[in-house]
Structures are given as structure tokens and as C-alpha cells.
TrEMBL record:
Belongs to the FBPase class 1 family. Keywords: Carbohydrate metabolism, Cytoplasm, Hydrolase, Magnesium, Metal-binding. The gene is fbp. InterPro entries: FBPase_C_dom, FBPase_class-1, FBPase_N, FBPtase. Residues 6-194 form the Fructose-1-6-bisphosphatase class I N-terminal domain. It comes from Phaeospirillum tilakii. Pathway: Carbohydrate biosynthesis. One of its GO terms (molecular function) is fructose 1,6-bisphosphate 1-phosphatase activity. This is Fructose-1,6-bisphosphatase class 1.
Amino acid sequence: MPYNRITLTHFLLQDQRRLGGTGSFTGLVTDLIFACKMISREVNRGALAGNLGVAGSENIQGEEQKKLDVLSNEIFMHMNALGGAYAGMASEEMEHVSAIHGAGDGKYLLLFDPLDGSSNIDVNISVGTIFSILRLPEGASTIAEAAFLQKGVKQVAAGYALYGSSTMMVLTTGNGVNGFTLDQSIGMFMLTHPNMTIPADTQEFAINASRARFWEPPVKRYVDECLAGKEGPRGKDFNMRWVASMVAEVHRILCRGGVFMYPMDAENQAKGGKLRLMYEANPMAFIVEQAGGAASTGRQRILDIEPAKLHQRVPVILGSRNEVTRLVGYHSEHD
Ligand code: AHM
Ligand code: MG
């Protein structure tokens, strides 16, 4: 095992020195690291700790909560409130934003999906935590929902923890994307995936094909052309993957390219889409763009969407740049 690797904490300190920061941002990521390590432990212990199964409650989205959804939310709220860097938090699992009255100066806002892909918990398939950090707007005195309704381009940092065959944390602060693997024996995240980059072209796509009857024509056209393989208009064969865990799909795309779609469909139209703008689409779009990829609804760059409400849903198409551009082109030809 190589002993020349650097830890996530040292990586952040190097960045802090380079940028001349005060250390408050580094402290805030340290709290995120603790929270994700604790969630990783609970996911890992699974049935041994009685962590599987449903909690018997519903979240604000009307979705059944798993025990681990509830536990992860509690861990994330508690651990991230300790450092005092946040003025407020918003979670996919909570109806309202939560003001944090900590010891620090509370300059940031934290938005998160504590355990994404939770339909996979009981079957021991990868799940993850997604987070997005915004600055508290100048002059915002009360921590109301309005303070959180900022475009994705305003994110200071975003990342995810993936609880997979190994636990990883992938992070961007707007200067590229880096991946760190948790060394369980010493409890440290080590830099293993520096400067992650998404290839512009791909032969792999991810979509829940059981929803094909609800798709709009541009998405149907794109998938049909991929399925036609070498003989079709694309002149090459495509492979398909669907984990039903956005963190795992985005991670695969960061590692080897691909395109991920949860597009607008007839059944989700009234809701605006399936995935949540503030907890899923925005942080993942920031990461994907920082890795050289693209992220769109099909009709608009995700990071440019002006949020109308906290739990807003949007269509999501992200990954290898040339494929996303093609899909956006199909949408504009159709509209
Ligand atoms: P969740 O936040 O309730 O876990 O839902 C989000 C997940 C994504 O991770 C994944 O891409 C999608 O929902 C899977 O949806 P489906 O069940 O239609 O395959
Ligand atoms: Mg989610």
C-alpha cells in the first residue's frame, strides 16, 4: 500500500493555504466528513444493527421513509450543526428549512439528500449522501426558505459520499473534482481519484426503461438510436446501466463516461420531473460540469434554473458532453 497518499483534510488545508482562506470552509468540510463516516458505518452494519426496513413515516414528498433515511438525516443535521459554520440547513427529508444557532459565524447554508437511492438499502446495493453548500445571502437576517432559493451557479461547493463496495467522497469547490476513498482501518479519506474527468463521448447510457411509454419524443428518439447499435444512425453499439441510485450512476459516469437521464415524462409532468433541484440536480450538475461534462433539463442548463420552491423537481440529463449536447439538440428540434 502506498504511503505517499494525502488525506482529504490535508488536501483541504493545501487548498486553504493556496487561496488564503480563514479555515472556516475547511472546518465545515471536516464536519461533512464525520457525518458521512457515521452514515457509512450505519449503512455498513445494515441488518446487524437492525437498520433495514421502513420507519413507518412519510417525508414531505409523500414517499415512505426507510429507517436509514431517518437516521442519516439525524446524523447529518447533528454533526453539521456542531461546527457553527452554517446559518441554516434544508433536507430532502424535511418539510421546512432549519435555522442553526451555533457558536460560529454561520456564513453558509447546507442542502442535502441524506440517503439517496434508498430503494436500494434493503438489498445491499450502493446508496449515497448528496450535499450542496451555498453562501448566506448578504443582509439575509432570517433563515427563511427564500435564502436557499439560489441558482446552482451560486454553489460554493458540492459533493457526495458513495456507500458502495468502498466508501468514497467526491468533492468540488469549483476547481475540478477530486475523489477520496475511506480507509476504514484508520478512518481517513485518502485522495485516490485526483482531477476526475468525464470523457466527451461515450457508448453507455442510463435510464429507467420501464418508463419508456411516458417519455417525450426527443428522449425516445435518442434511446431508439442507441438501441439500433452499429446498424443505426449512431453507427456504434451502446451499453445500458441502471442502478436506481443517482450517486452510483454519477460516480460511474465520472469514472468512465456515460449519460444519465431522468427526463420529463408524461407521468411526472405535473410534479415538474422526478429528481429534486436543490438536493440532487444542482449538486450533481456542478460536479459533472467541473469534471468537463454537461447537465441540462433538455431545455435549460440545470445550474441556470431560478428555483421557485425548496422541494422543486426537474428533469435531469447529465454526463458526457457530446451526448448531452445531442439530447438538447433533439429537444430544440422537437419544440
Ligand atoms: P430518493 O431520493 O427517494 O432515493 O429517489 C431518488 C432516486 C435516484 O437516486 C435514482 O436515480 C432514482 O430515484 C431512481 O428512480 P426509479 O425508482 O424510478 O428507478
Ligand atoms: Mg434522493
